Amino acid sequence: MNNRLADLRRMQGVTQEELADALEVSRQTISSIENGRYNPSIILAFKIARFFGTTIEQVFIWEE
Amino acid sequence: MKKMEMRRIGYIALLVLGIIVVIAGVFITEQRWGGVLIGVGAGVLGMSGAQLITQQVMIKNPGLSKQVATEQSDERNIQINNYAKGKAFDFLQVLALPFFLVLILADVQLWIVLLAIVLYVADWVVYLWYMNRRMKEI
Asked: Given CA atoms B56, B57, B60, B63 in this order, what sign does their dihedral have?
């Protein structure tokens, strides 16, 4: 699944480390999500969306 | 903090128990049981000692403590760990049957072969039990 996490993070001037701390996950998890290697759980997806004040659909792009 | 203190007391008790068991092992003249006691005591001693040292390091370094807690609860790490465990279980299934065959061909005592088979079956029982429980849960 593609996502705009890296773009959103850079736009808000947040480092991977800071985002990981805020979401209580490891920095590697953030990195893996950004690279599209790991799809987060629905709970983590909600946490990410809420962190950026947006919706899941604005962060994660699902195409059939 | 109270939970941590309770754990600390538990590890100190285990440490003391380990020391007692090792000393008992040294003084028991029957060689076989003496060896067993020294082995078990040293294991308990080492495990509790390592836990106490880890706990001390965590207390002195709250940053590291938080990092370890995050790493342990991280969903990706949990998924990776579960994947590795699943693969290890599959690998065990591949190894089990040749292992039984080797035991039989090596002409070992029957009770050893039966014990190995019981362990193998117990592994499957645990697997099926958790499968069934999880299917009902989710």
From this structure: negative
Q: Is B22 left (phi over 0), alpha (psi -120 to 50) or beta?
A: alpha
> Which residues does chain B have within 8 Å of residue A26's beta carbon, measured at their own beta carbons?
70-71, 74, 76-77
Q: pTM, whole model, 2 decimals?
A: 0.78
Q: Does residue B137 belong to the interface with chain A, where contact is any CB pair within 8 Å?
A: no
Q: At B39, list the tokens.
A: 């082995």
What are the strands, taking DSSP E only, across chain A?
A: 2-3, 60-61
Report which DSSP code applies to B28.
-
Q: Which residues of B50-59 are buried (b: 16+ CB within 10 A; e: fewer)?
A: ebbeebeeee
Judge whether residue B61 has pLDDT over 90: no
Half-sphere exposure of B6 (CA within 13 A, CB side): 3
B1 confidence band (pLDDT: 50, 70, 90): low
User: How far is A57 from A60, CA to CA, in rounded Å?
Assistant: 5
3-state SS class at B42? helix
d(CA B82, CA A60): 25
Angle among Cα B40, B45, B48 to the nearest 5 degrees reads 120
Length of chain A: 64
- Side chain identity at residue B25, one-letter code: G
Half-sphere exposure of A17 (CA within 13 A, CB side): 1
Interchain contact, A44 vs B77, CB within 8 Å: no
- Please indicate if any CB of chain A lies within 8 Å of the CB of B77: yes
